Each structure stands twice: as C-alpha cells, then as structure tokens.
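In this section we walk through a basic example: taking a raw amino acid sequence and producing a predicted 3D structure, encoded as discrete structure tokens. The instruction is simple. Fold the sequence below.
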Amino acid sequence: MTHVVRPFTNTSFEEALQKLKTAHSYLVTQAKQSIRDSNFEDSCWGTSIKRSSVRLNVGVVPTLIGKNEEKFGEVINIAATVERLIDAIGWFASQPIFTGYSILQCHPSTSDDAEGNDLVIIDRKGTIVIKCEVCDVASSNAGANGKESKDIRNLGCDEAVPNDGVARYICTALEFAHALTSPNRKWIAKPYRYQLIETGSRAGTCMLLIRNAE
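The resulting token sequence is shown next.
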C-alpha cells in the first residue's frame, strides 16, 4: 500500500519530529499552491476543489512523502492528523519519565486496519511501553465516525484494558477529547476510563490515557 506520508521505524523523538514537520510543511505548501492554481467556476467551486488533486512530486520532495499526488480533501485530513501526531511525539519527548525512549513504529497516514498502531514507543531496553492511536475528529459527539470504537479495538481495550505494562493513549482534538471523557456517557457498559491530559499545543491537542474501569 502506498502512503501519502510513509511509515517509519526505529527513530528517536527528535528525528521523528524533524521528518514529520518537513513532510507536513510540504503538504501544506503544495495544498496552498493547488488552490492558487485552481480556476473553478464559483457555481461548482466546492465540489471541484474537493475532488481536485494536490501534486506531491514538485521540487524537493521530503523522504516521507510516498505519493505523486492525492485528493485535496485527503491532504487536509492527513495534514491535520500529522499535526496531532507531531504534538503527541513532542509531548512524550517533553516528559522526563520518557527520557531515553524512542519510536519503534510510526504510521502517520495509514487507515484503521493498518498493521500495528499509529505510534509505538519503546524504552531503553527495547521493550514496548506505549501504544497510541492518533486522530483529528472535528466533533463534540463521542460516537462520531465510530472512531473511538476503532481506536479502542486497535489498542486491544474493547473487552478489558490489558495489564501488560503498556500505556495506551488516544491523541485527539480538544472537543473530541471532552466528548469522550464526558461524565454523561453510559460508562457502566465500558471496561475503560480516560485520564485527559492537555498538551498545551496551539492546536489544543489532548492525550487520553486509557485506564481500567475498576
């Protein structure tokens, strides 16, 4: 499968951030250029720009960019997810408890059924200690797109939170994080609870640490 932003492995936090920021900047630049180059009639501008393609083979192409072009709408979605991912890695890197940790796997633009998780972090001994799913859901409805259910399943917490020493997180937008942690939800049927952590990023990215309901 070809990815807009390629997966990568065995990387330090610092190197991962540099690679992702370079790829993100390129996506934004090319998407903006796509709008400037467009000449759609006003009567069909929205439907046309949504389906137009962004060229991703122009100039100096970052190593993580894996496609020659992609639909404009998908580039927006991927750019937003990469922004959340950058915030997540930056937050992990800033925590003294994670000093010396590194990234085993990173999947910046894969789908929910991709192998592995969006972000997998190991300690100094090479043991997996963190798994994280990353999403940018622009909704204050916990059931939006079924995204929570997919992330919980991908993290192996749909029946119980595993007691295996691995911390599991969902990284997402502030409004979606508040929806997922709302006290008004039917928590009695769920085997997990969340601890909401605000990263302090400009985009309002939040980390939801998943805990056992008991």
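Looking at the output, two observations stand out. The chain has one domain: 8-212. The first helix runs from residue 13 to 37. In the next section we compare this with other chains.
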